[in-house]
Structures are given as structure tokens and as C-alpha cells.
Specification:
The complex is a heterodimer of chains A (516) and B (380).
Chain A (H helix, E strand, L loop, with lengths): L4 E12 L2 E12 L3 E6 L5 H8 L7 E6 L2 E3 L4 H6 L2 E4 L11 H6 L5 E2 L2 E2 L2 H14 L14 H14 L4 E5 L7 H16 L3 E6 L2 H7 L2 E6 L2 E7 L5 H9 L17 E11 L6 E11 L3 E5 L6 H9 L6 E6 L2 E2 L5 H6 L2 E4 L3 H5 L6 H5 L10 E2 L2 E2 L1 H15 L16 H14 L4 E5 L7 H16 L3 E6 L2 H7 L2 E6 L2 E6 L4 H8 L10 H4 L3
Parallel strand pairs in A: 3-10, 3-11, 6-9, 9-10, 15-22, 15-23, 18-21, 21-22
Antiparallel strand pairs in A: 1-2, 1-4, 4-5, 7-8, 11-12, 13-14, 13-16, 16-17, 19-20, 23-24
Helix pairs in contact in A: 13-14, 14-15
Chain B lengths: L10 H27 L4 H14 L1 H26 L7 H18 L4 H26 L3 H21 L20 H4 L10 H4 L9 H18 L1 H11 L1 H6 L4 H24 L14 H12 L4 H19 L7 H15 L2 H33 L1
Helix pairs in contact in B: 1-2, 1-15, 1-16, 2-3, 2-14, 3-9, 3-12, 3-13, 3-14, 4-5, 4-6, 4-12, 4-13, 5-6, 5-12, 9-10, 9-14, 13-14, 14-15
Classes of the chains: A alpha/beta (516), B mainly alpha (380).
């Protein structure tokens, strides 16, 4: 009975106005195990971790470290107890060096002057020991996302943390980097450190975790040993029903060219080089073309150029036979372009508008919704109710819900409803499932497939390799603003090599593209 | 339980209660200040502040009369705010509007309504500049509009000083530091009283301006809430990037909203100076009226209908404040008015507190409700 638990969170209840984010949740972390925490968006994972890390105080429940009850009032308390956390969005000072970031907050000083030599030795030793390659003198703003994550991990190690929390660490990494991270985590386990690993991705849990606790809608569903479970069981525990993993789709039947891009060049906002450097491709009716690549290789600017949010430096775009290189955003929209934007809060929604107002955001000027400039709110309501019904958008007060108060998945569904209902010729979907849980992902994938089967052209920009592989009819790999690969199908590792820029191939060649 | 909403969820109730409590706290603090400044007269002072507005029909007429320009300046600030712009230039637009109205009235002998249209146009022109600078060069509108406050004020002084016909001295009075008395220069330019003076016991203040202002408030509300134009303006204000994404021309909307905001302030200036009770005095400081539009708009949370009530409230306090003299200096009454308005603006904060308190009481029933709802969801 006497298990060696390093951290126990017993019967934690945390309430926010109007919602119980954590309702009587118990989580027990054994010494030296990798414990996954699984749950949909809004299931309460982040809240629970924030309670453990001292960012929130629970209303009920106790936290025990090594069997003794402790009070964690702020992250400093957590640090003292040896709890460290890698946040989903890194907390690094961009204009500091790697070393400065690691020691920030626990610097050694002598007469008020920084003493970095000891720190440098310790960091290098840790880096060596766990295979965390970093350049201590590089500016954080200059290093890759993968290295930034290693800096975050080193921060925890430098503080001699024994309990390491990883909040969705793989979301921003390439397949190779994910493998490396898994290896590093196994290394920590060998050293006797305990790891809490928050993720949506079942395959990663199956690969690396020892046990997994599942949350659903703020409640605790159970803890299972990974050795005795399956992906299907985990997803059932998380969602409460069976989930389809394999996307079913009919054979591709392409029609005429809908979108044609020639030698597109788009300037970068962050550096002097162009972000998109002479990209050419076509998308035909009835196919899903996916642009795969690691974040920051020009995808964002490519989409901005296509949709008219940024002007092209050179090149041309043709939509349904019409030259739209210099057309306004509204004109492109009228010609049949729909755009599910990368950032739903920045572009996709007016968060302080209601759901119904957001749903007519593309169409309020149509005669159906306005008469001499006066909006027909009755019609808007009816239209929104129809969309809510058809696309199963859930919210507190139906069409009158303020968009800000909705969950991320339902916000995304609302955007997809709006963009698909425009009946577009071309649907540009940029990371449409980013940050969503399996249930919502499954739904959004089925909608994209449905558009394709209707004979629409779909251009999908995604960082998720699983998504790229299961949805696309054709894959274009983008690296440093150029298309470096064009495949009908390709193996996972192979794709990773192209994305990392290690391989490139400009002409389409079916045989070479096949998985090796 | 279904047909009766819990009190905490009745937004209207909470909002009104929050405002009332905030104002009460503000008055309490005001009273404490009075006690500090002049303990012997504190009671009298507070009574004056609270009752003067209703003490006679004449004074109530004054409250209404003063609220009209306040209301328009508040609408101006609020309208721009809804579009994401902070129009701190209301006072400059107000001054230009006043000048244009007086120019029409005195120099061109136009009827009152034509003068009001001139004030509208003058204010609108003054609003274009900050809007254009923001749209074309991304210059912060706060900086531009503050500069245009001073430019407007000195321009008007300069013009008046060089237009002898505009000054009181040209119309039978001796002073040349102010514009002509409209009763002598052009009685037709005085805004009609519409019989209200008889209703208000021959109040010298009252005219139809407050109703014009209320009508404008309703029009503003209609534009913002019911039209595609307002829909676009607000979308730009809430999220400029999203507005751009759906193809709304954000820059055009910035300019339009500043033009409208300017026109509203300008009309406020016209309404105030065409009442015939006051003459424009050449001074070296910007007029307070435009700045007072900011608390009016803030109190109303930029809602045009709310602006009607917040401007009446502030006008009432101001009329009361002027009745506190000579027991209290005008500076100290200004401080007290500021304290009251400042605390009244805590209404939003108070709203959160009230919701929490009411929720605390009804939490057991609410939990049962949400549990039942969750169960239903599960079944579905």
C-alpha cells in the first residue's frame, strides 16, 4: 500500500466565477515516473498545474510533498519545494543570452556584481549530462524554438528541481525534436526525477509515460497504467465516447485549377530578407493541398499574401481564372476565397461581439442581412441559430453569447461555420486544429474533407504532421520561404528531414517521395 | 426556478445598483472633503450641492441647459471610443463649433438652425485632422488632438481679435474681450425656447437644446447599434485586425468616426453659445466643457443612451457646485465635483463586487442548476 509518492494533490477544488475548473481532483505522482495528464481543452489541466505551481490557490484540497502537507502560495514556494515548470508559451527574455535567462532570478552576486563563471560551469555540466545542447552566449531571439525549450528545461535543472512539469511541450517541435525530447525525459526518469507531462497527443503518452491521469470537464476520470491501456481507452476516458482516429476519405478527384500562385514574394516584418521567396504552386478543385513546415518558415506571410492582408513584392495570384494579385480582401472574398485564420483571436473573431455578430462578419452587407444600411437583426439571429445547429457550436447563451467567453474549440467551430457557409471555391485553413482536443479535431477534419468532396479546393497550412498526413492529397514542404518538396505521399521521417531543410527536391517525383 | 432569473444575472439591476452605490460613496467622500475644508459650512454646502438643481424650476432649467453641450461632448468622446479612438480633442472641436455658430449668427446674420449646421461642419473639420493623421501616418490621435485643441483655441482668438464686427463693442457694448450679445446682434440666432420658459417659471436658461442633444444621442445609438456602418465602426474599435481580415477599410472608418465625433462636439459648442445667455470670452486656456465630455462618456461606458443620464448627473452636480459659493471657493467645489465623478466611475468595479455578493448568497441553488444542465448535456 505504501507507495512512494513525491507529490500528491488530494481532492483539489478550484472555482472561477460561474465554473468549477477543478472539481475534487486527485493526482498522485510517484517518484521517478513520467506521469501524463490528459484532457480536452477546458478540462482543467492547466488550472490544476497552476495550483501546483502556486499561481492559483485551491478552495479545497491539500497538496503533499513526500507525504507532508505543504502550502504553495506562489511560484517561489513551488521552486523551494523543487517544482519546476516549462510553460506552453516560453517565459524567456528575448534580448538576453541563454545563460542570462537560465540564471535570471537566482543570480550569484559579489558586492552587487554578477558572478557568472560558476553558473556557466554548472549549466554546461547539466547540458552535457542530459544532452541538452545549447549555446550559452546566443541571444534567445536568435535561437530555434527547440533550443528555447531546452533553455527552459535547463532553467528547471539549474534550480535543482526534482519535479518537472511540461505543459504541452511538443506542440512547437519537429518530429526529430520530439524524439529527442522523449529521450531527454527518459534520461530524467533514470536520474530519479519525476515528470508531469501535459498533452493532447495520445501517441506521445503511449510512447513515454508510465501512468496517465485523465480529466474531463473539471472532474477526475481515473488513472491508468500505460502498459495496460490503449489509445482508444484513453480517448474514451478523455472525451466520454469513441473517437475515430483514421480520417476516412474517398479517392481524390481533381477538377480544374482554382488557385494558381506564380513566383510569389512577400516581405518579412521581422527581418530584411523576404519571408516568402518565389513560391509557385497550384490548387485544384476537389483536392486538399497541404503546406507543411516548421513554424516561422514563411507560412504566415504566404497566407497573408494570398488573402490580401499583406501586399506582394512580386509574383501573381490567380483565383478561378481571375487575377487577384492586387485585389482587396473583400474582392477576394467575393470571388470565392474563405480563410480560416491562424490566430483566431487576432483575426478570426471580434471577441467582444456576440456569436451571432461574429457569424455574419463576412456577410452583413448582403441584402439578406441589411436594408439601406440598417442591419436586420432578426435575420441575423435566424441565420446564426441555423449555423449553431448545423455546426454544433456550443455556448452559454446561444447566439447572444459574447465570443470571448466561449471555449477555444467552439470559437474555432464558429469561424469554420462562417467560412464554410460562404460556399467558397477555395478554403484556406491555417492550423485549423491548433490547441484543440481530439473531439473538435475530428469534427474539423471531417468538415475539411466534406468541402473537398463537394469539389472545393482546400489549402491547408499545418504544423501537425499527423494532420498533414491524414488529410492531404498533396503535400508541399516549405522551408525558409521556399517550397522544397512536393509529394503525393511521404513517410514521416522523410517529411521531417525536408521540413528541417536537410533535404530538398523541387520537381515532383513520385518515386523519390515515397517513404524510405 | 426557470422563469425567474437570479438577481445576480439581471444585468440591468446590477448595473443600476452599482451606479447608485458608487455615486453614494462619491457623495460621502465629497462630504468628508467639505468637512476638512470648512467644517462649519459643510452641511450647508452639501445641501446646496444636492438640492440646488431641484430647488427651483429656474435652477432645474439651468441643469437641463448645461447638460446639452455636456451630452454632445460626451457623445463625441464615446463615439470615437467605440471605434477605438480616444478623442481628447473634444474641446478644440467644441471651440471651433462655437466660433462657426457665432460667425454665422453675428457676421452673416443667419437663423439659429443654419448656425447650428455651421457649428456641426466646423467641429467635423477639426475632427478630420487627428483622424487623417492616424489613418495615413499612424500618428497617435491623442497627441494630434491635444495639439489641435490649442491650435483651435488660439485660432479662434486670433480670428475674433481681427473681426471687430464679432465683438460686443461693435453692438453697443463697451467690452471688446468677448463676442456680441446675441440679443443685440441677431435675436433670430438664439435657439428658441419652444414655450419651455413658461413651463419652467420664466427660467432664463431653458431652451430646446437639451432635446436636440437627446435626439442626437438616440441617432448615435441607432447608428452604432443598428446600422452596417456602426457595425463596422465597432468592429474596428474592438479588433482592428479582425476588421481588416473581413475586408473592412479600417482607415476610412477611423477618419469617419473622428469626423462624426468632431461634428458632435462642434454642435455642442453651437448649442451652448447660441442660447443667448453667454458670450464667448477670449481667454488663454482651453474650455473645460470638452474635457468634461470624457467623464460623461466614461460614466456612461460610451453608451449613447447612458450619456443622456450621465450628462444630466454631472450637470446637476455642477449647478449644485456653483451654488456652494461663496462658502467654498470655486476651486474647492471643482475638487469635490471631481471626487464625486471619479468615484462614480467606480461603477464597473462595484458591478463585480455586487455580482460576487449576490452569487455568494445564491450559490447553492446555482450549483444545483449547473449540475442539472451538465447532466442534460451528458444525456444528449
Amino acid at each position: 500500500m505504501a507507495e512512494d509518492y513525491v507529490i500528491e494533490m488530494l481532492h483539489i477544488t478550484k472555482e472561477f466565477p460561474g465554473i468549477k475548473a477543478n472539481d475534487d481532483i486527485t493526482l498522485q505522482l510517484k517518484r521517478g515516473e513520467i506521469h501524463a495528464l490528459l484532457g480536452e481543452n477546458g478540462a482543467g489541466k492547466s488550472t490544476l498545474m497552476s495550483v501546483l505551481f502556486g499561481l492559483y490557490q485551491a478552495e479545497q484540497g491539500v497538496i503533499k510533498k513526500d507525504g507532508k502537507e505543504v502550502a504553495i502560495k506562489d511560484p517561489n514556494d513551488a521552486n523551494r519545494l523543487g517544482i519546476g515548470m516549462v510553460h506552453q508559451h516560453f517565459k524567456l527574455v528575448e534580448c538576453f543570452t541563454v545563460l542570462d535567462n537560465i540564471i535570471l532570478g537566482v543570480e550569484d552576486t559579489k558586492h552587487g556584481f554578477l558572478q557568472k563563471d560558476e553558473a556557466r560551469k554548472k549549466v554546461m555540466a547539466l547540458s552535457e549530462k542530459y544532452g541538452l545542447r545549447v549555446d550559452p552566449d546566443a541571444m534567445v531571439s536568435d535561437i530555434s524554438v527547440g533550443m528555447q525549450q531546452r533553455v527552459e528545461i535547463l532553467k528547471m535543472l539549474y534550480r535543482d528541481n526534482e519535479i518537472l512539469i511540461f505543459d504541452e511541450p511538443t506542440a512547437v517541435l519537429t518530429p526529430q525534436e520530439i524524439d529527442e525530447l522523449m529521450e531527454i525525459m527518459r534520461g530524467f526518469k533514470k536520474e530519479g526525477k519525476s515528470i508531469l507531462f501535459i498533452t493532447h497527443k495520445l501517441s506521445e503518452i503511449m510512447a513515454v509515460a508510465d501512468r496517465c491521469s485523465v480529466l474531463r470537464k473539471g472532474k477526475y476520470t481515473g488513472t491508468v497504467n500505460i502498459a495496460d491501456t490503449s489509445r482508444e481507452e484513453l480517448s474514451r476516458m478523455m472525451v466520454g465516447r469513441d473517437v475515430e482516429f483514421e480520417v476516412k476519405k474517398k479517392a481524390v478527384q481533381t477538377g480544374e485549377v482554382i488557385l494558381s500562385v506564380k513566383d510569389m514574394v512577400v516581405a518579412s516584418k521581422v527581418h530584411d530578407n523576404n519571408a516568402v521567396r518565389g513560391v509557385s504552386f497550384e490548387v485544384r478543385a476537389g483536392e486538399i493541398v497541404c503546406i507543411a513546415g516548421i513554424e516561422g518558415n514563411g507560412q504566415t506571410e504566404l497566407v497573408y499574401g494570398l488573402t490580401g492582408l499583406e501586399p506582394l513584392k512580386s509574383g501573381s495570384i490567380t483565383l478561378c481564372g481571375q487575377d487577384i494579385t492586387n485585389a482587396s480582401i473583400r474582392e477576394r472574398s467575393r470571388l470565392g476565397m474563405s480563410h480560416i485564420p491562424e490566430d483566431r483571436h487576432k483575426h478570426g473573431l471580434v471577441l467582444d461581439y456576440t456569436l451571432e455578430q461574429n457569424m455574419v462578419l463576412q456577410r452583413y452587407r448582403e441584402p439578406a442581412f441589411q436594408n439601406h444600411g440598417v442591419i436586420k437583426f432578426g435575420e441575423v439571429r435566424k441565420y446564426a441559430e441555423g449555423l449553431i445547429e448545423r455546426f454544433d457550436v456550443r455556448s452559454g447563451q446561444g447566439p447572444q453569447t459574447i465570443a470571448r467567453s466561449m471555449s477555444g474549440g467552439n470559437q474555432q467551430k464558429a469561424i469554420i461555420a462562417r467560412e464554410i457557409d460562404k460556399d467558397p471555391q477555395l478554403l484556406i485553413a491555417v492550423q485549423p486544429t491548433r490547441g484543440l482536443d481530439v473531439g473538435a479535431i475530428e469534427y474539423i477534419h471531417s468538415q475539411l474533407i466534406a468541402e473537398r468532396d463537394k469539389g472545393r479546393a482546400v489549402l491547408l497550412i499545418s504544423l501537425e504532421l499527423d494532420e498533414v498526413r491524414s488529410l492531404s492529397d498533396r503535400i508541399l514542404v516549405i522551408y525558409e520561404g521556399q517550397i522544397v518538396g512536393d509529394f503525393d505521399s511521404v513517410g514521416m521521417q522523410e517529411l521531417g528531414l525536408y521540413m528541417a531543410g536537410a533535404k530538398r527536391k523541387n520537381k515532383k517525383d513520385g518515386k523519390e517521395g515515397k517513404a524510405s | 426556478m426557470k422563469n425567474k432569473k437570479p438577481l445576480a444575472e439581471n444585468q440591468m439591476f446590477v448595473a443600476v445598483l452599482a451606479s447608485v452605490i458608487s455615486i453614494a460613496v462619491g457623495l460621502l467622500f465629497g462630504y468628508i472633503l467639505l468637512l476638512v475644508l470648512n467644517p462649519a459650512k459643510a452641511g450647508i454646502g452639501m445641501t446646496a450641492m444636492l438640492t440646488t438643481g431641484f430647488s427651483s424650476l429656474d435652477q432645474f432649467g439651468k441643469v437641463l441647459y448645461q447638460s446639452a453641450p455636456l451630452m454632445l461632448c460626451g457623445l463625441s468622446v464615446g463615439f470615437a471610443f467605440k471605434t477605438g479612438m480616444f478623442n481628447i480633442g473634444a474641446t478644440g472641436q467644441y471651440t471651433i463649433g462655437a466660433f462657426c455658430a457665432l460667425l454665422g449668427a453675428i457676421a452673416f446674420q443667419l437663423p439659429w438652425w443654419a448656425c447650428l449646421i455651421l457649428s456641426l461642419i466646423g467641429g467635423a473639420i477639426w475632427g478630420i485632422f487627428p483622424g487623417l493623421f492616424k489613418a495615413l501616418f499612424n500618428v497617435n490621435e491623442v497627441i494630434t488632438s491635444i495639439m489641435f485643441n490649442w491650435i483651435g483655441m488660439f485660432l479662434v482668438n486670433l480670428l475674433l481679435a481681427n473681426m471687430p464686427i464679432m465683438l460686443a463693442s461693435a453692438w453697443g457694448a463697451s467690452n471688446s474681450d468677448r463676442t456680441a450679445n446675441l440679443a443685440q446682434a441677431n435675436p433670430g440666432a438664439i435657439i428658441p425656447k419652444g414655450g419651455l420658459d413658461r413651463l419652467f417659471g420664466n427660467s432664463s436658461w431653458i431652451n430646446i437644446s437639451v432635446f436636440i442633444a437627446m435626439l442626437v444621442a438616440v441617432i448615435c445609438w441607432f447608428i452604432l447599434e443598428k446600422t452596417t456602418f456602426g457595425f463596422e465602426l465597432k468592429a474596428c474599435g474592438y479588433n482592428k485586425e479582425a476588421a481588416k481580415y473581413v475586408g473592412i477599410n479600417a482607415n476610412r472608418n477611423i477618419v469617419s468616426s473622428m469626423i462624426i465625433a468632431g461634428a458632435l462636439s462642434g454642435l455642442g459648442g453651437g448649442l451652448y453659445y447660441l442660447a443667448g445667455t453667454i458670450q464667448y470670452v477670449l481667454e488663454k486656456k482651453t474650455l473645460a466643457m470638452g474635457f468634461n465630455g470624457i467623464p460623461v462618456a466614461l460614466l456612461a461606458n460610451s453608451n449613447p443612451i447612458g450619456t443622456i443620464f450621465s450628462s444630466l448627473f454631472i450637470s446637476y452636480i455642477q449647478v449644485g457646485g456653483s451654488a456652494m459659493q461663496p462658502n467654498f471657493s470655486s476651486e474647492s467645489t471643482d475638487i469635490i465635483i471631481a471626487v464625486i465623478i471619479y468615484l462614480a466611475a467606480f461603477a464597473l468595479l462595484m458591478k463585480g463586487v455586487i455580482t460576487k455578493v449576490l452569487k455568494g448568497k445564491g450559490s447553492t441553488t446555482q450549483n444545483a442548476d449547473s449540475a442539472a444542465e451538465a447532466e442534460k448535456e451528458e444525456k444528449a
